[in-house]
Amino acid sequence: MRSRAIVLIILSAVLLLRGPSAAAQTGSDEKAFQDIKLLVFDEKWGEALSRLEAFLGGNPAESRAVPALYYRAKCLEEIGGRDRDAIQAYRDYLRRNDRNKSLAADAEASVIDLALKLYNGGDRSFLPDVEERLTHPEKDVRYYAAIQLSYVKEKKAASKSVPVLKKIMAEESNSELRDRAKIALLRVDPAALAQFEDQPPATRKARLFSIEILDTRTMTVELSLNLPFFLADLVLAGMPEDDRALLRARGYDLDKILKELQTVGSILEIKDEKEGKLIKIWIR
Q1: What is the pTM of this model?
Q2: Is residue 66 in a domain?
Q3: Could you say which DSSP state residue 133 is in?
Q4: How many domains does the chain have?
Q5: Distance (Å, rounded) from C-alpha 172 to C-alpha 165?
Q6: pLDDT (tens digit, 9 = 90+) per residue, 248-283?
Q7: Is 261 part of any domain?
Q8: Domain membership flag for residue 220
Q9: What CA–CA distance (Å, rounded) separates 149 from 164?
Q10: Is residue 240 part of a domain?
């Protein structure tokens, strides 16, 4: 049944992270990479970092080396005290043409956060990492860079965010986003928006991969699952192609489902009238 099949997709993905799939995993690279992903999932950043560096030093296949570069950067960011190394690691990942789009978006935001942290700590050399993202081809990156840059105390630097902030106000239909832009403009140029009342700083919220199963007969939630998106992406990316092909043959294309959900706020709803279930999957 369709509702059960979707649940099985998610559960099988989690099981793939926790251990070998039904399709036998072969090769030392594959086994090592699966073990490292388990450490990342458990947030054992120091141990995962050591394993990743050894793994990358062994010249693994490109299909494993590229995501390993991202996870190494994430470990450096989370472990603390290695912000400069983390930025450089994210830069290395973002230079790859075969990078994952979702992980790249998270990497761009991390670079902005880390660069501003270092700048506010007295190292001006990292400010260009934020300024250059004001012209990034992805609007989400441009917007985030502009809003975060508006917090910089140096007015000359902060004022570079103004064109992007004005564009948000002129073109965006999302009221929350427009409000953030207004507040950011108020910080940069109070005279321009003196009528608006200041609010607490906007902060980047981690994107979440959410699943909810509702019993439509009793209107009760039977299952509610929220994962940081980069972990959900990690889980699903680890599914072997043989298993993906099997799911496609049954009518479920994981890549297509994720692509359809890339727009924040988009919700995939699957109804099973016979069982009285409603499954909702979304990214927020």
Answers
A1: 0.62
A2: no
A3: G
A4: 1
A5: 10
A6: 666 666 666 666 666 545 676 777 777 777 777 777
A7: yes
A8: yes
A9: 11
A10: yes
